[in-house]
Amino acid sequence: AFYKNKTGLNVIGGKVKSWDDSSSNTFDMVQSTVANQPSYTASTGGVVFSGADFMLTGASQTTIPPATPFLLDAEFTIGFKIKATSFTGIILSETLTPFGNFKLDSSTILSLATSPTGSSVPLTTTTGTWEDAYVVITRNAANLISLSVNGVLQTGTVTKTGDFRYNLLGSQNVNFPSLDGSLFELQVYSSTSPTLTDNINERLSNL
Question: In this predicted model, what pLDDT tens digit does every residue of 92-105 receive, in sequence order?
Answer without folding.
Answer: 988 766 667 888 99
